[in-house]
Amino acid sequence: MFGIVFNGNGFVWQSYPIFHLGFTRILHIIVSVMYRPPVCHNRNAFLSAFPNNVVSCRHEGPVWQVAWAHPMYGNILASCSYDRKVIIWKEENGTWEKTYEYTGHDSSVNSVCWAPHDYGLILACGSSDGAISLLSYTGDGQWEVKKISNAHTIGCNAVSWAPAVVPGSLIEQPSGQKPNYIKRFASGGCDNLVKIWKEEDGQWKEEQKLEAHSDWVRDVAWAPSIGLPTSTIASCSQDGRVFIWTCDDASGNSWSPKLLHKFNDVVWHVSWSITANILAVSGGDNKVTLWKESVDGLWACISDVNKGQGGVSAVTEGQQNEQ
Amino acid sequence: GVPTPFNPSHSVSAGFCSRKHPMATGAACVFVVRRDQDIYMETLRKLFNESHGIFVGLQRCEEERAARARNAQLVQVSKNYRSVIRACMEDMHQAASKSVLSGQRFSAFFFQVSILSAMELIWNLCEILFVEAAPAGPLLLRLLDWVQLHICDVDNMVREVLSSENPSKHKLFWNVVDIFVLQGRMDEARHLLSKEAIANPTSMKMYKILDDLMKKMPLGNTQTLTEMELKWQHWHEECQRYLQDGTFASNSHMESICKILLGDENAILEKKELMTTWYHFLVTRLLYSHPTVKPMELRFYAQSSMDMFLGEESSPEPLDTILMAAFEFELHQVIKECSVALSNWWFVAHLTDLLDHCKLLQSHNLYFGSNMREFLLLEYASGLFSHHSLWQLGVDYFDHCPEYGRVYLELHIERIPLNTEQKALKVLRICEQRQMHEQVRSICKIMAMKALRNNRLGSALSWSIRAKDAAFATLISDRFLKDYCERGCFSDLDLIDNLGPSMLLSDRLTFLGKYREFHRLYGEKRFSEAARLLLMLMTAHIAPCSFWMTLLTDALPLLEQKEVIFSAEQTYELMRCLEDLTAGKLDRQKFQDDDVETMKVEMLRLALARNLARVIVKEGTLEGS
């Protein structure tokens, strides 16, 4: 199930965890496209989407992605843009204000993703200068920055955090104390690689390198976990392929890819449902498709939505081959 | 689901409409896509609500130990589900007929009603074959009931004919007689035939024979199978004799009826339009050629019936495949086909659950280790969570999924939009009942943050206490204190007065509570207690340093009282506090910063000194002197 729900003030936080990359990202960008003044090109756009709010500072280039923080921190939104900036916005008393602006990247920042709320307020940003920066809120309006330089050669296109669940916790009874989480996130870049980063002793290290794509990786999405020992990552690329990577052991050492499908055009985004049993894929072929893993381990398309056409066909396994 | 542009009739509205923008590549629209449009139709909500009650009842009811009683119990549950489906269909019919519906909505209604009808048809068959597991003999009777229930056109035709002046002359007369025969409704057929006999005395003889044959036809489950078979064999032979004798030769209608009675497939097939479906044909065939058919034999007759009936022209539709799978006793196939054909999980989830209770489903190890029943229930319940009020039903479904229900519930319940306090409390109650502490904390924190953003400090404080969030409680207490400093009074006194043991959550909160207590004591003129409390707040370091000035200022009126309140020791303590405070400040206050501040300090010093003087005298004076 997924429902993108909006209210009159703009996005309501429900859109956050359902697809915080992927589907809503398209909508957010469409929104920004739609609301720009007729003349100028795609700037200043996104917060003018909030009809009642005045925004005092803006991006000076296309906004690539927005991400909501967990509502327990308030209404906080992060945005990243071609203008190399990452801006964090906060809503106070019905108005949106910029609480922090990060300009530490040398080129377009392509992706932002908030870490699971259990880790506090941490934002990962991936940029075309190849670096990934991690902004952590330390209190009193202060943000600490850690930078991973040269994470990907040429550029980093996507970042996605692993859920704050200890793999296998569903099966082994939890001890009741707060578990020791190991912070991890995945990134995809122009070097055709998906990389997994792990925090060790306060430093971020590259843990794994996942190779399967033959062109730029456009998006990565780490699937939410229900506590099974398997970890899953979806990645999509310029080469039209979507891979599902799974790792069966808790230590995270052996990832094996499975090809979901080869599309006819570049695939831009992938996004998981809340319980990670459905993957939404969107791409240059103007379609949004939903995929589910079947009993025999193959992925089947369960529906597709043709953008702009309003019709829908329930695709059964037989028809899937037409794709 | 069907992508619809923003629908203003929904309570949650999209802020963006689907305006096409010239500069965008392609249509710049926002699509609100829902997988289950069904959830939003009013009448289906009734289906979801009522079936939820039946589902929970089934999970919780005590299993009858005797097999027969258990069987009866499960059949009753199945009938309940079916009656809910039928009630839903009725409501839709009524709603459709009451309002004038535009073309699109009418067809949507019609479509929905036909889906419900199909569901009831399938469920009914599954009830007969799987839940009740009717044995040979009663099986056919149930199937006859099933067919009679679902071919509705008959009743209209019957009414038309019966209400006419001269029924036997009505052009549909023989159609109605035929259909009665085809459906094994012998008494009704005989009744109609009698009218024909009266109107047409020449055929009296033929009629009497036919009537007799129909009366004698062995039907019913009051005998053993062998008895039944024997009787039936005799009867069949008798019919055969009459046919071969040419008794009915002069009346083609009666002759064809006799052929039908003999189970002549061609004769039955001639009445294709009356039967309308291959499964009707199947049941008629069985009635007149194999009335003691065993459940496991059904599959052969079903397949051949469908082939004969559909012939070359048409191919089976999804409904046909589902029914065929049922006749073949391929449970998993039935569930699979239904899952594909239907647009939401309601049907398969509930049916599978029922079948599971009948112990008919082997545990299939699906890729995530759960079984089919749970898989379908999880899907269905997940779908419910996208609705603003039906999510509450989903909770119970998750509760009855032993493997993943809890974790699914944890993931979904955190994402319910908490637009109102009542809703938040509802969600909280559910989490607390299930000891979902993480979710409780998370929700309380969210509500506290919301309240704080809207400046409702009291609400924010009570939420953060409930969340046991010390840091937040400290933050809010600071805000309260700041408010007090600015305005001179407290907001939300009730809350602060009744903090009780939760006061201990954070130091700042404790201070807030105690400080308020000080004010109360002062208001009740219990000065010495107030004084003691005030001093304790500073000496025990409960009060933050930033607040000491305010506390000392609060001490002023106590010092200025006619009666001496502070003892000498207490006065010394106060003086020490003052000195500690000013010592620190001297370096910082370079400029006049606060003339008020310096004046306050001086006044305090004076008051303290005066008090000290008075108290020394007082304490030095002997009693009575």
Automatic annotation (TrEMBL), chain A:
It is found in: Lysosome membrane; Nucleus, Nuclear pore complex. GO terms for biological process: cellular response to nutrient levels; COPII-coated vesicle cargo loading; mRNA transport; positive regulation of TORC1 signaling; protein exit from endoplasmic reticulum; protein import into nucleus. The keyword Nucleus applies. GO terms for cellular component: COPII vesicle coat; GATOR2 complex; kinetochore; lysosomal membrane; nuclear pore outer ring; nucleoplasm. Keywords: Lysosome, mRNA transport, Nuclear pore complex, Nucleus, Protein transport, Repeat, Translocation, Transport, WD repeat. The keyword Transmembrane helix does not apply. Coiled coil: none annotated. WD repeats lie at residues 210-245. GO terms for molecular function: identical protein binding; structural molecule activity. Functions as a component of the nuclear pore complex (NPC) and the COPII coat. At the endoplasmic reticulum, SEC13 is involved in the biogenesis of COPII-coated vesicles. Required for the exit of adipsin (CFD/ADN), an adipocyte-secreted protein from the endoplasmic reticulum. As a component of the GATOR2 complex, functions as an activator of the amino acid-sensing branch of the mTORC1 signaling pathway. The GATOR2 complex indirectly activates mTORC1 through the inhibition of the GATOR1 subcomplex. GATOR2 probably acts as an E3 ubiquitin-protein ligase toward GATOR1. In the presence of abundant amino acids, the GATOR2 complex mediates ubiquitination of the NPRL2 core component of the GATOR1 complex, leading to GATOR1 inactivation. In the absence of amino acids, GATOR2 is inhibited, activating the GATOR1 complex. Belongs to the WD repeat SEC13 family. PANTHER family: NUCLEAR PORE COMPLEX PROTEIN SEC13 / SEH1 FAMILY MEMBER, PROTEIN SEC13 HOMOLOG. At the nuclear pore: component of the Y-shaped Nup107-160 subcomplex of the nuclear pore complex (NPC). The Nup107-160 subcomplex includes NUP160, NUP133, NUP107, NUP98, NUP85, NUP43, NUP37, SEH1 and SEC13. At the COPII coat complex: interacts with SEC31A and SEC31B. Interacts with SEC16A. Interacts with SEC16B. Component of the GATOR2 subcomplex, composed of MIOS, SEC13, SEH1L, WDR24 and WDR59. The GATOR2 complex interacts with CASTOR1 and CASTOR2; the interaction is negatively regulated by arginine. This is Protein SEC13 homolog. It comes from Meleagris gallopavo. The gene is SEC13.
UniProtKB/TrEMBL annotation, chain B:
The lineage of its organism: Eukaryota, Metazoa, Chordata, Craniata, Vertebrata. Its main location: nucleus. This is Nuclear pore complex protein Nup85. PANTHER family: FROUNT PROTEIN-RELATED (PTHR13373), NUCLEAR PORE COMPLEX PROTEIN NUP85 (PTHR13373:SF21). It is found in: Nucleus, Nuclear pore complex. The gene is NUP85. GO terms for cellular component: nuclear membrane; nuclear pore outer ring. One of its GO terms (molecular function) is structural constituent of nuclear pore. It holds the Pfam family Nucleopor_Nup85.
